[in-house]
Amino acid sequence: MKNLENKVVIITGAAMGLGLATAKELASRGANLTLVDYNENSLEEAKKEINSQYPAVKIITVVADVSNEDAVKNYVDETVKAFGRIDGLYNNAGIEGKQAGITEYDVAIFKKVIDINLMGVYYGLRYVIPVMQKQNYGRIVNVASVGGIRGVLNQMPYVASKHAVSGMTKNAALEYGRYGINTNAIAPGAILTPMVAEAFKQVNPADPKAAETEYAQRNPTKRLGLPHEIAKVVAFLLSEDASYVNGQTIAIDGGESNIY
Ligand code: NAD
């Protein structure tokens, strides 16, 4: 299905995990891509991998830390220089931080999580929206989390930052819907990516696989999600098929967030 043919989409955190899986899905639908990440080596690997599978897709890479405002402005400028427009932004780069209780949480790590997960998403909106406004068209998908719709033990800055992503999504929808810009968020549950593998190592350093199996038992589907199951929803939200969906945070979690 080539329903994103010649659309230009920026993906942050594109070198691995959900960003890379989504980059492949969008490439398969004909989109041209700006891949952004602070991990330069993995970013170049990602570009090679996608281009070997989809040689017709035009890809540029921009090394950037999304918590750095100038670096964000630069990935936007580079995209406009290369492609002349921006149809979509997948505002995905994020980190989990360390797992610790509120009173023990390392304040420097707390601030880092906020800088990347909250400010990084905000800077993306701040610099991409004016380009989309001029076009009278844009599709934005911010990455929240189930931690953006409920609490998660020992992950306070992550939960705070992801609730903020959901809030920023609502405001962007209200303020820019009139310019043909739709802004939504996704709230993935536990999806098997390097970030989640690292979290299971923290929960049970001796046997991360056991922690993963135990965690999956809480889910109605009794399994973790897979990156392509996120990518397909993102591709839908970036497409014309989602033209009247705006300001929503969509859980993609096998139903887990309905349990209490
Ligand atoms: P990951 O760690 O597997 O990949 C994240 C990518 O983002 C990496 O390539 C990393 O280098 C890049 N990145 C991190 N910080 C960056 C920064 N400051 N600037 C530029 N690049 C940066 O993580 P993932 O699981 O793919 O997560 C992607 C997003 O999805 C995150 O926002 C995360 O919070 C969210 N999320 C993931 C899950 C999950 O289960 N995997 C669940 C809910 C939400």
From TrEMBL:
Superkingdom to which the source organism belongs: Bacteria
SUPFAM superfamilies attached to this UniProt entry: NAD(P)-binding Rossmann-fold domains (SSF51735)
A matching Pfam family: adh_short_C2
GO biological process, one term: monocarboxylic acid metabolic process
Sequence similarity: Belongs to the short-chain dehydrogenases/reductases (SDR) family.
Matches recorded under PANTHER family: 3-OXOACYL-(ACYL-CARRIER-PROTEIN) REDUCTASE (PTHR42879), 3-OXOACYL-[ACYL-CARRIER-PROTEIN] REDUCTASE FABG (PTHR42879:SF2)
The name this protein goes by in its record: NAD(P)-dependent dehydrogenase (Short-subunit alcohol dehydrogenase family)
Protein's organism: Flavobacterium granuli
Lineage: Bacteria, Pseudomonadati, Bacteroidota, Flavobacteriia, Flavobacteriales
